[in-house]
Amino acid sequence: MEDKFNIQEELKKLPDKPGVYMMQDKRDTIIYVGKARILKNRVRSYFREAAGHGPKIAKMVSQVTRFEYIVTDTEMEALVLENNLIKEYRPKYNTMLKDDKTYPYIKVTVGEPYPRVLFSREMKKGSSRYFGPFTSAAAVKDTIELINKLYQLRTCSRSLPKQCGKERPCLNFHIGKCSGPCRGDVPPEVYRVGVEKALDFLNGNHEPVLKELKGKMEEASALLKFEEAAQYRDLYDHVKQVSQKQKMTDTEGEDRDIIAIAREEQDAVVQVFFVRDGRLIGQEHFYMTHVGEDTKAQILLSFVKQFYAGTPFIPRELLLQEEIEETEVLEQWLSGRRGGRVYMRIPKKGTKEKLMELAARNASMVLKRDKERMKREEGRTIGAVKEIAVLLNLEKIHRMEAFDISNISGYENVGSMVVYEKGKPKKSDYRKFRIKAVAGPDDYACMKEVLTRRFRHGLEEREKLTEKEIGEQFGSFTKFPDVLLMDGGKGQVNTALQVLEQLQLEIPVCGMVKDDNHRTRGLYYENREIPIDRNSEGFKLITRIQEEAHRFAIEYHRSLRSREQVHSVLDDIPGIGPRRRKALMKHFESIGEIREAGVEELAGIPDIPQRIAEEIYSFFHDSVIR
């Protein structure tokens, strides 16, 4: 058995070097990650009696049973590592950037003989040119569509000029949206004239195209070509709209982000204005969680670390509302990521100060506007989960799993598993089950098979992992629920309890009882029906989970029925193709008879050799618990 971790003794062993430290609770869960210029000084400061920590840090320290650390060569290396660990573990007591977004770019493949203008979520090294990032994917797609209309650029992925003349031009050519370089009669230098105009347009020079469109509109109108004139008018209006969105903010033509914050009690919003080539191209707000009693400067520091660790574009200048710590090391880190000098500054006067004030006002408005919505959302999710926990007399509920069975008179029995964490669906953990061992409409037997396979699989995976690793396997069966929700009453609950008892698992099981109209009326738990207020958030969440489990099962069943003309459960057996499936169905009257047959009987059927007979028998017997 591992020796108990002695915090005071381990504090004496800390090195006086830069690095990252990780605080862990009694379950070895990482609850806080921090970086230090000198590990010895920083980590020791948490455990001094007269340290004067705020409530948030004091509560965190009270839960620490051990800590780990990683030594780095420089403070900047520690900063990078800290960001990576926070993103991986999302510790409870770190102030977190709630939004994890990737921003769209406009990519021009200038390295190709016939370049294209494309939508992209990432910047890659190469010959292509990128514009952005932009905050609206819809606006980016609209701009790309406009550019292709204006300059008749291709949107296809054909390898030109290699494939020129080998296929007929697409519809875009025939409706006048593409010049058709795939035909082979558009020289690259002619095509590139439109590309250069597109690059000029993306750089913000809209006047030439506005002038050209206005001239064409007036010319078409004078010739009484009113439909053509209307098309030029629509393009003119669209270009003008785009040009107005890219409003000039200063004459320096720099790339900069302007970052302000609004804070109210436990809520904080960071507002960012994105300025590219001196133009304000968009804005975005971000919610910060686990704020506690952190100051605005501390929240800004957390935001800068986390946001710029994930975005591919780093501007030359960050304008901050307040001074933050670690400015020197952050500038060094950001400069390395950008490949050029990055400055972090506090605007004091002029246009930059006015933009900062505008960003701060926007942050305040967003916070006031969304605070009520966020409270309602929390009530629908976390609040609803707490209501259910109180009803069931459970200390805490984090993860709930619900199961349902779907069939039509026993035809193609399937099961569904849906997962909710903190009151929200976690679709990456949803699972489908195709029933293998039950013939006919026996929902209890189907549910027993589904639950057995789900938890047996989880137990097998857990044997290969440590307790710490189990908590990190978010997409697998290794995480067990805090409560099981069964789509039914006493019968389904007892079925689940039998499976859990056989597998020696202790998990609360709750049935979602329905009335005669198939609507949830209460919960069946510990041999009694618990009434629930139909107007409560807890009831609404239970109903949503029940409907989601039902929907997921029905959709899977429908997809199987649509394929049944060419597919059956026999097709899932290795070595069974159309010929052998036909031989089996000719010899046996049903899947049930095949399941009951022994290896010798199966091997006696024409086209079914001994090896395949053993595969069939194993599929219907050994694989039930997998």
Rg to the nearest angstrom? 32 Å
Shape: globular
Would you identify the CATH architecture of the largest domain? 2-Layer Sandwich
The number of helical runs is 20
CATH topology of the largest domain: Nucleotidyltransferase, domain 5
Low-confidence stretches: 245-251, 563-567
What is this entry, summarized?
The protein is α+β, with helices and mostly antiparallel strands.
Q: Can you put this structure into words, describing what you see?
A:
By secondary structure, the protein is of the alpha+beta class. Strands 14, 15, 16, 17, 18, 19, 20 and 21 form an eight-stranded mixed β-sheet that branches. Strands 4, 8, 9, 10, 11, 12 and 13 form a seven-stranded mixed β-sheet that branches. α5 runs antiparallel to α7 (188-202) and α8 (207-222) runs antiparallel to α9. The longest helix is centred in the middle third of the chain and has 42 residues, at 350-391. The chain is globular.
